[in-house]
């Protein structure tokens, strides 16, 4: 488990996509759930900072692609956590969570985590693709809006439902004052974040 900022952590050794953890007082939130077969790694890393999967209160899903939701079924069942997902990706998590646990988002909501996390709908990667912005700390959990596998980039077009739509919508990220980017893939980035994002749109 790597500490990224006060109350914000990144799980290590994830196979494909990143999983982030926010510990805000007693409230535990994870953002995305990793790839198939990673449950044991997730559990072990939570344990490193004294958390059990049962203690998770909120599970935020950036989008419903397989590499981000593979452990949702197990984590949602064991924790009973409230799940936040965009309505347009609901069908992608079908069968992975008790409907009573699911809170549908449209974009524009503010989640009561870390003093306010804004939900930003950026359709095109998937229909219900989202990014989440922690307004007090300026941390952007970009989901797959941004990759950082070989330097910061937009997602490879082969993974988008509709690249034209995505590239039009993703520009909204430049409206946020970003201190740290926590991407869906690759390491986090600190410093000069807005400029780096602007450069992608040129
Ligand atoms: Zn992904």
Structure description:
By secondary structure, this protein is of the alpha/beta class. The protein has one domain (2-200): Metallo-beta-lactamase, Chain A (4-Layer Sandwich), CATH 3.60.15. Helices cover 18% and strands 29% of the residues. The protein has helices at residues 39-48, 66-69, 72-79, 163-169, 193-200, and strands at 2-5, 8-10, 20-24, 27-31, 58-60, 82-86, 102-105, 110-111, 117-121, 130-134, 139-147, 180-185, 189-190. The strands form 2 sheets. Strands 1-2-3-4-5-6-7 form a 7-stranded mixed beta sheet, with no helix packed on it. A 6-stranded mixed beta sheet has the order 8-9-10-11-12-13, with no helix packed on it. The protein starts with a strand and ends with a helix. The relative contact order is 0.14. The mean pLDDT is 97. The structure holds zinc ion. Zinc ion is lined by residues 17, 65, 67-68, 144, 184-185.
Domain unit count? 1
Could you estimate the helical fraction of the residues in percent?
10-25%
- Which secondary-structure class do the elements indicate? alpha/beta
Q: Measured on Cα atoms, how large is the radius of gyration? A: 15 Å
Determine the N-to-C terminus distance: 35 Å
The percent range for strand residues is 25-35%
Give the topology string: H per helix, E per strand. Answer: EEEEHEHHEEEEEEHEEH
In the CATH classification, which architecture applies?
A: 4-Layer Sandwich
Largest sheet geometry: 7 strands, mixed
Sheet with the most strands: spatial strand order: 1-2-3-4-5-6-7
The low-pLDDT segments are none
Q: Which ligands does the model contain, each kind named once?
A: zinc ion
**What is the global morphology?**
globular
Can you give the mean pLDDT?
A: 97
CATH topology-level fold name: Metallo-beta-lactamase, Chain A
Question: Mind telling me the CATH class?
Answer: Alpha Beta
CATH H-level superfamily title = Ribonuclease Z/Hydroxyacylglutathione hydrolase-like
Number of discrete helical segments:
5
């Amino acid at each position: 488990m790597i500490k990224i900022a006060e109350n914000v952590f990144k799980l290590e050794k994830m196979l494909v996509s990143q999983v982030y953890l926010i510990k805000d007082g007693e409230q535990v939130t994870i953002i995305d759930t990793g790839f198939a077969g990673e449950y044991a790694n997730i559990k072990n890393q939570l344990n490193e900072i004294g958390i059990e999967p049962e203690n998770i209160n909120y599970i935020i899903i950036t989008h419903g692609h397989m590499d981000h939701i593979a452990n949702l079924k197990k984590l949602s069942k064991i924790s009973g956590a409230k799940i936040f997902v965009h309505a347009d990706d609901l069908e992608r998590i079908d069968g992975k969570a008790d409907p009573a646990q699911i809170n549908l988002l449209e974009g524009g909501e503010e989640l009561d985590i870390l003093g306010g996390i804004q939900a930003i709908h950026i359709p095109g990667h998937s229909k219900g693709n989202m990014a989440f912005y922690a307004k007090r700390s300026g941390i952007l959990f970009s989901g797959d809006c941004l990759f950082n596998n070989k330097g910061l980039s937009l997602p490879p077009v082969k993974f988008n439902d509709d690249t034209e739509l995505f590239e039009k919508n993703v520009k909204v990220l430049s409206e946020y004052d970003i201190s740290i980017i926590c991407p869906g893939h690759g390491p986090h980035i600190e410093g000069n974040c807005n400029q780096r994002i602007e450069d992608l749109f040129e």
